[in-house]
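User: Could you go from structure to sequence for me? I need the amino acid at each position, not a summary. Structure tokens:
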């Protein structure tokens, strides 16, 4: 069935070795900034490699209620992961002063969503690395009140350059 094919594609995307390695490191990490950095890296790699699968899911969800339910469940699970991160930061006292746990969850959920990746990378011509740098800078600044720390091992600039040209799609 169409639903089974979509599930298989999503499972295949999640079985990527790089993503599994990041998930393992994420689970063990205790430093909030490093944990956020790993989450942002996961996002970039996942959306970069599975953007087509996600588009298939959304397209199929528009005409198939069972797939729409699957997409809704996946988004709720993503929101719960965001809430767990925000809860951890709130408990540890690492959220930026004035940011509530609810606001942290909402911002993390919104900015890490596939729509932002699609709008910046697919529609606006940013590279996936530029998206990752911007997302890390934005989330660190808003959630943790920290200046951007360059991605470990990165030699690229911390501030995103203006996009070269907007792709017409």
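Assistant: Here is the amino acid at each position, in order:
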């Amino acid at each position: 069935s169409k639903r089974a094919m979509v599930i298989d594609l999503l499972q295949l995307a999640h079985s990527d070795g790089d993503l599994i390695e990041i998930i393992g490191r994420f689970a063990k990490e205790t430093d909030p900034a490093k944990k956020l950095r790993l989450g942002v890296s996961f996002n970039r790699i996942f959306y970069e490699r599975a953007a087509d699968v996600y588009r298939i899911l959304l397209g199929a969800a528009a005409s198939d209620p069972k797939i729409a339910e699957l997409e809704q469940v996946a988004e709720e699970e993503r929101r719960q992961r965001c809430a767990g991160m925000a809860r951890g930061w709130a408990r540890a006292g690492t959220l930026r002063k004035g940011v509530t746990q609810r606001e942290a969850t909402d911002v993390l959920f919104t900015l890490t969503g596939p729509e932002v990746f699609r709008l910046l990378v697919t529609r606006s011509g940013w590279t996936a690395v530029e998206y990752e740098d911007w997302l890390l800078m934005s989330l660190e600044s808003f959630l943790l009140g920290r200046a951007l720390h360059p991605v470990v091992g990165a030699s690229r600039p911390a501030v995103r350059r203006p996009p070269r040209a907007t792709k017409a799609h």
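One structural detail worth keeping in mind: The CA atoms of residues 14 and 20 lie 8 Å apart.
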